[in-house]
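hey so i finally got around to running the thing on that chain from the lab meeting. sorry it took forever, my laptop kept dying and i had to restart like 3 times. anyway pasting the input first so we r on the same page abt which one it is
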Amino acid sequence: MDNIHQFVQKSDVNAAALAIFGIIGATVVAFKVLSFLKLLFDVFLRPGINLKKYGAGRGGWAVITGATDGIGKEFAFQLASKKMNIVLVSRTESKLAAIGAELEQKYNIETKHYAMDFAKGADSDYQALQQLLSPLEVTVLINNVGTNHEMPTPFEQETDTIIKSIVEININAAMRMTKIVVPQMVSRKNGLIINLGSFAGLVPTPFLSVYSGSKAFLSSWSQAIGAELAPKGIHVQNVNTYFVVSAMSKIRRASMLIPMPKPYVQSVLAKIGTSGGASTPYTMTPYYSHAIANWAIDHLFSRGFWVQQNYNIQTDIRKRALRKKEREAANSKKL
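ok and heres what got predicted. didnt touch it at all, straight out
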C-alpha cells in the first residue's frame, strides 16, 4: 500500500509539474503571438504622429545631415512636400545648392544649406551651423549622415583613419547636431529627432566592429535622451534600418528586404511614434520587411545565433571583396 501511495504522489507531482510547464509555455507563445500581431497593427494599420505637430505647413524647419544622396536626400524632398522648410547639411556645396533650388521651385518652401565635412569635426563648422540655425524655428532634426568600413575588415587590420572617421561621423556628429537644436526645442516644448540607426547596432556585426559599435551607441544614446526629452515635449526615434539601396550600402537593386529610399522614407514619416517590429524603447522599425526581420531577431533563436549569422555573412562578403581587389590589381598591371 505504501508503494502504491508513493507512486500516486509521484504521479501527482509529475502531472503538476507538466501542467506548470505547459502553462509557462503557452504564456510565452501567447506573448510572442501578441507581439507579432502588434507588429502587423503598427506596420499596416496604426497611423503615426502627423507632421503638422512639428511645424509642417506652419513655418517649421527640418535640419537634415547627409542630405545630398540616398535616404537623406529623400527625407529632404518628402519633408518639403509636406511644406516644411529645409536646412541641408552635407559635404558638397554644388549639390546642396542644386537640391535647395529644386526644393524651393518644386514645393514653394524656403531652404538654407551649409557645406561641411563631418569627418573633420571642426569646431568652426559647428559654430557656423549654430549661428545659421539659431534664428530659425527648428522643429525636426534628421541625424542621417553616416559612414561605414570600406569592406568587412578584422578590427586589428582596420586603419586609424577609418576608425576615426566612423566615430566622428556616426557618433560625434549626431551628438553635436542634437546639442545645437535641442535648447530651442526645449524652449518651445516641441520637436522631433530622428536618428538613423542600423541592424548592426541591434546585433553585433563581426568585421564591421567599429560601425556596429557606433550604431549600438546611437541606439543606447537615443533611448537615454529619449527618456530625458519626452517630458519636455520632444520625441526621439532611433530608426532601425536594414539595407536600403544607396551609395553607402553599395546595393543597386531593390528587393523585398532592400527597398529604394523613397518607400523607406515614406514608411518612417508615416509611422512616427510607432515601434513597428522594434521592442527597444524610443526605437522604430517601420518598413514592413525590416519590421518582421527585427521581430524575428528579438524573439527567435539566441543572440549568439544571430551574431554567428552576421559572422558568416561578413566573412563571405570579405572573401568576395578581396577577390575583386585581386582582379582589379591584376588588370591594372596588364595596362
